[in-house]
Amino acid sequence: MTESDGQEQQKPTTVANDESKRWRGGPSSQSRIEERVNFAYALLLRGDTRHSRALEASKKFNISLRTAHEDIKKAMELLSKERSEDRAELLNIITANRLSLLSKAVRKGNYQVACHLLDSLGRAAGELDPITEASAAPLLRVEIDDRRNTSPTE
């Protein structure tokens, strides 16, 4: 039908140009996204497979699997950032515990335990890595004087 017949041609409606066809009414608010990411973070700490976590998140929040996987990806980034920040503090706590245990072992006469703890502290400090060990290997040099052709009186 043309406009000359007196009727207008209507443009077909799609999700892009008709709000009523959008199943959720547009993008989520920032607080809703944070809530989903926090839920995904809790699922990460609980374990399970990535797909099962995404299924559970999609059912709980009525979102697509793709969005659930994106939320889990954001939660994984948050978790790795958090762990890298905690790593330095955790290493200090472990070193303090080793030193405390070392003094107790020496006080009680457990010298084998003390040796293992000293070895552990050395490895943690990077003292005994393979590169350092290879460079610290002793150099042995042997020289032999030939005295066969000399007289015993010399």
Description:
This protein is mostly helical. The protein has one domain (26-135). The chain is 60% helix and 0% strand. The protein has helices at residues 30-46, 50-61, 65-108, 111-124, 130-135. The longest helix is centred in the middle third of the chain and has 44 residues, at 65-108. It is elongated.
In short:
With 154 residues, the chain is mostly helical. Helix content is 60%, strand content 0%. The protein has 5 helices and no strands.
The H/E string reads: HHHHH
Structural class: mainly alpha
* Strand residues, percent: under 5%
Distance between the termini: 128 Å
Low-confidence segments, given as residue ranges, are: none
DSSP, total strands: 0
- How many domains comprise the coordinates? 1
- Rg on CA atoms, Å: 35 Å
Task: Figure out the total of helices.
Answer: 5
Largest sheet, in brief, is:
none
Mean pLDDT: 79
Helix content: 55-70%
In terms of quaternary structure, the protein is: single chain
Shape: elongated
